[in-house]
Each structure stands twice: as C-alpha cells, then as structure tokens.
Amino acid sequence: MSRAVEEQNRRLLRARDAMDRTYPRPLDIPALARIACVSEAHFIRTFRATFGETPHRYLQRRRVERSMWLLRETDRAVTDICIDVGYTSLGTFSRTFRGIVGQSPVAYRRNITPVAGAVPTCFTMAWARPSSFGEAGRPSAQ
C-alpha cells in the first residue's frame, strides 16, 4: 500500500470516527470532508470505495445498531429511541430499521431472546450487528 493511500485511509477513518461520535446529529458532509481533507464529492466517492457504503448509509446503520441495543437493553418507548438516535420522524426510523434489520422495531423487541450471560457480550454484539447487505445478499438500497 502506498503512503498516499495509507494517509487517505487514515483521514477517512478520522471522518468515520467523527460520524460514530456524533451519530445522533444530522449528517454534515462538508465538516466530514474537511476532516478528511478532500472535497465533498471526493469524500463521498472515496468513503464508498473504502468502506463499501455511502456516508449516509453508514450513518443509518450506526443509528440502527444503537437503536437495536436500546430496544434490547431498555424498556423505553420506540418513539424516544427514534429521537435519541437522531431521527426526527418515527416513520422514517421504522422504514430504515425494517430495511436494515428485516423487521419493525416493535417486532424486533418482541422477538428478542435473552442470552443471560451464556455468551460473551462481544459475540452477542457481533451477531446482532445489522449487515449492510439485504436479505438476498446484495447491498441494500442506498
């Protein structure tokens, strides 16, 4: 790997880390592009080429991952969770959640089977992590 590619990857990782820290806030492509030291259009193209999904889709998946944890570990209302993870519309949240997980947030919560310490947390989290691929094994819609 060339030094230039390595440096580009480092800058993209910094931008992705910023997205992870601020996932409840609206996506700010200009700020992320500044972190990566590239133009906005180049940031979107290189992010997708590097991570396999657009910044928008990555943010959606991160929000859904967090909401899955909240649905499993708390008894808070779905509407509260929707707002906490950065969505302003329950309909958009539910549609995105269903598109990534394959079921509605309410159905997901209803179908959870507790493992009660039988499996290490890191394995549970990896198993429960939503994929960026649809049910047919193809990348889901951006």
User: So what's the CATH class of the largest domain?
Assistant: Mainly Alpha
Order of SSEs, N→C? HHHHHHHH
The stretches of 5 or more residues where confidence is low (pLDDT under 50) are 135-142
- Classify the helix fraction into a percent range: 55-70%
Number of helices: 8
The tally of domains stands at 2
Strand proportion, as a percent range, falls in: under 5%
Shape: globular
Could you give a short account of the major beta sheet? none
* First-residue to last-residue Cα separation: 29 Å
Overall description:
This protein is mostly helical. It has two domains: 3-52; 57-128, Arc Repressor Mutant, subunit A. The protein contains eight helices and no strands. It has helices at 3-21, 29-36, 40-51, 55-73, 78-84, 90-101, 105-111, 121-128. The model is unreliable at 135-142 (pLDDT under 50).
Helix and strand layout, with pairings?
Blueprint: H1 3-21, H2 29-36, H3 40-51, H4 55-73, H5 78-84, H6 90-101, H7 105-111, H8 121-128
Helix pairs in contact: 1-2, 2-3, 4-7
Observed structural traits:
mainly alpha, 0% strand, 8 helices, 65% helix, globular, 142 residues
In short:
The protein contains 8 helices and no strands. With 142 residues, the chain is mainly α. The chain folds into 2 domains: 50 residues; 72 residues, Arc Repressor Mutant, subunit A.
